[in-house]
Amino acid sequence: MEKIIVPVDFSEYSEYALKAAAKLAEKNNAEILALHMLEMPEIMLTSSGEEPQRVIYFLKLAEQKFETFLNKNYLQKVKVTPIVKHFKVFSEVNEVAKEHGADLIVMGSHGVSGAKEFFVGSNTERVVRNADVPVLVIKNDIADVNFDVVVLACNFSEECVASYIKASKICAEMNAKLYLVHVNLPNDGFNSSVEIEKQVVNFFTKAERSLDKMEDVHYVNDYTVEDGIINSANKLGADLIIMPTHGRKGLAHFFQGSISEDVANHSTLPVMTFKL
Q: What region holds the UspA domain (predicted)?
């Protein structure tokens, strides 16, 4: 891990993310790219006359805020590069990640719920949906980023083999214990214990060519996948939840939603997402 992007809006939640990123950067000798995005209307970016002067004013104001915001003791041992972009939409964080070759995005979030979530969503959701690199969502001022116990949501389909291998690699780098959680739903999604065990055997045969990891699988019955994952993570004493995502966009996302985004929004634990 060489570069970590932290979107900054100067709120307490972006500082939670900055603190977590600083601990990760110090452990991995990585650089932090502190990114502030001025979400300006198109007219302010293209017009002539007074509007460009206003853009320059807001850019200078953001730079001044950075001087204060980044003047923290926990950043003294870390290289931090402030970046100010005048993008129109928050989803373009991914463009910055590609431009700088970032390995991880660490995002602070307070989460949203109800009608606001359904119709508007959150900046965190936009980043999770569009990012090609893993996104670590931080909700609180966590004491440490020693992720010793990690939960990966898995339905043991062939599609999940790639996400399991990637999650295993991440956990190996962090020296963390990885548990796989399967949520058994009522009605159409219900499977018997025998059916689930057959799926698990087939899964590990393809992913590991061994059944040694069978003991790390946990089954839970719940009404939603989201609740099952969060409840299991708390029961297992997890420090981190890993969720693969399809990165659905447009109408497909609006009608089907994304379990990964829901978990990232509602879990009090840190959540890491990566695109399949």
A: 2-139, 147-274
Asked if residues 181 and 232 have their Cβ atoms less than 8 Å apart, the reply is yes
136 bridge partner residues: 106, 272
- The whole-number mean pLDDT for each consecutive block of 10 residues of the chain, a chain of 276 residues, reads 91 92 92 82 52 70 83 92 73 86 90 45 74 91 89 88 91 92 84 90 93 92 91 95 74 55 83 86
C-alpha to C-alpha distance for 119 and 250, rounded to whole angstroms = 12
Nearest to 244 by CA among 148, 138, 139, 159: 159
Write down how long the chain is: 276
Q: Is residue 209 part of a domain?
A: no
In the chain, the number of structural domains is 1
Note whether residue 203 is domain-resident. no
- In this prediction, residue 267 carries a pLDDT of 87
**Sheet strands (E) in the chain:** 3-7, 31-37, 79-85, 104-108, 135-138, 149-153, 177-184, 217-221, 240-245, 271-275
- Distance between CA 15 and CA 144 in Å, rounded? 14
Identity of the residue numbered 219: Y
Query: pTM (2 decimals)?
Result: 0.84
